[in-house]
Amino acid sequence: MVEDWLANAYEGMSRRQFLARMSAAGVTLAGFAISANPVAGEVITTSAEGLIVAEGKVPSGDFQIPIYEARPAGAGKYPVVLVIPEIFGMHEHIKDVTRRFAREGFLGITFEPYAREGGVLHLPDIAAVRKVVNPVPDARLMGDLDALVAYVKKHPAARSDRIGVTGFCRGGLYTLLFAAHSREVKAAVPWYGQLKPARTPGVRTAGPIDLAAQIHAPVLGLYGEKDLGIPVVDVKEMEAALKAAGKTAEFVIYPGAPHAFYADYRPSYRAEAAKDAWGRCVAWFNKYLKG
C-alpha cells in the first residue's frame, strides 16, 4: 500500500516552514529533527475557550486507552463524533480537530490507537512507524472503538443514540470498517481512507469495498484526485458499491488535491479543498446526528 505522507515534502515551502508545521502539530518524527521555531499562522489552532476539554482513559479489554475529548461548555447533551487519528496517532493536530467538532456543537472524542506500542512519534522515520502500525489487527481497533462507544453510552453530556465517526488516512480506513462493524454508527465521514488495503493474515481479511453491503450509516467520502495511494477509480467503485447495496453515500473528489489535503501542518494541505470538505463534513453530521 502506498502511503503518500511526505511526497514532494517541501513543495511550495521552505524546509524551515515544513519543520515548523510538523513541530507545531506535535509530530516530532526524529527523522526530521525538529529544530526550527514555529512560524506564526502556519498551523490552524482552535482555542479551548468556551469548551470543556479533558484527557482520560477508557478500558478496552485489559488495557486503558488514552482519550481526549472536547464539547461546548453549555449544559446539555451533544451528538458524538469519534475522531480516528492518522498513522501518527493522537498528536496535537488530531486534538485540534476534536476541538473543531466541539465548536460545531458536538462531543468530540479521539484516542491513541498505538498506546500499547508506546506510540510512534518518537520513531526515526516512516518505515519504522509502519513497522509498528502495520501489524496491528483491525479487530483490535474495532474493539477499541467499541470501548469508546460503551464510554459514550454512559457519558452525561452525550446523546448516545447519535454517534458519528470520522478519520483521516488510516483513520479513514478504520472509519469505514467501523461503520460496517457497528450499528451504533449513525453517520460516517472517511477522509482519504484506503479502500483496497492489503490483506494480511491475522491483521486484515477485508477492505471497505468488500464490506460495503454491511455499512448501514450514511457515508460521505472526501478524497483527493491526485492521491498517490488511492486511485479515483477505487473511490468511484466504493461509492457505486454502497449505492448498489441501497446505502446513502456521497463521495467528493477534489481536483488536484493530494492525499492528506486537510492536514494543515503538512505540505499536502490545500486550503480551498480543506475548507469545502470541512463544511461538507459538518453539514453531514448536522443532518444525520442533530436532525
Structure summary, number of beta strands = 8
Total domains: 2
What proportion of the residues form beta strands (DSSP E)?
Answer: 15-25%
Continuous helix count: 7
The computed structural class is: alpha/beta
Biggest sheet features: 8 strands, mixed
For the residues shown, what is the average pLDDT? Answer: 88
End-to-end CA span: 38 Å
Quick overview of this protein structure:
With 291 residues, this protein is an alpha/beta fold. The protein is built from seven helices and eight strands; from the N terminus they run H-E-E-E-H-E-H-H-E-H-E-E-H-E-H. It has two domains: 11-42, no CATH class; 51-290, Rossmann fold.
Keywords:
Rossmann fold, 7 helices, 2 domains, alpha/beta, single chain, eight-stranded mixed sheet, 291 residues, 21% strand
Task: Outline the structure in words.
- By secondary structure, the protein is α/β, with parallel strands linked by helices.
- The protein has 2 domains: 32 residues, no CATH class; 240 residues, 3-Layer(aba) Sandwich (Rossmann fold).
- The protein has 7 helices and 8 strands, in the order αβββαβααβαββαβα.
- It has an 8-stranded mixed beta sheet, with helices on both faces.
- The longest helix is centred in the C-terminal third of the chain and has 20 residues.
- The chain is globular.
- The N terminus is likely disordered.
